[in-house]
Inverse folding.
């Protein structure tokens, strides 16, 4: 019973707006960061440089995580439960999917010598 009361307080408290907006702002920062990372990958792909696909996938992965955090934060702030659920489901599913693709592309980048050139080790 105490958990239900705590969740109700967390959902209805007027102070919920502050952590919710902090979560959405962090998602916005990740969104910008993901766009920059994906753009760097696209530039590398245009010049056919090694590691381009991996960088692009990392940017896309960050973008999907950012959109999920923004949806959760705004859903919490404005009492939109469907946005919270959509953010959680979308974020979790895309995290799994892009993690698999990023692992394969990381191996490709390591094989092409990109990671060693960047000072990373595969």
């Amino acid at each position: 019973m105490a958990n239900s009361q705590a969740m109700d307080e967390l959902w209805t408290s007027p102070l919920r707006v502050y952590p919710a907006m902090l979560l959405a702002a962090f998602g916005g920062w990740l969104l910008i960061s993901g766009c920059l990372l994906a753009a760097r990958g696209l530039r590398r792909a245009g010049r056919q440089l090694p590691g381009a696909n991996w960088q692009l996938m990392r940017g896309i992965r960050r973008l999907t995580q950012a959109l999920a955090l923004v949806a959760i934060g705004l859903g919490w702030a404005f009492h939109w439960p469907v946005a919270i659920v959509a953010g959680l489901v979308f974020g979790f599913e895309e995290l799994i999917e892009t993690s698999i693709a990023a692992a394969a592309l990381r191996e490709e980048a390591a094989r092409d010598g990109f990671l060693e050139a960047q000072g990373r080790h595969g």
The mean pLDDT is 87.
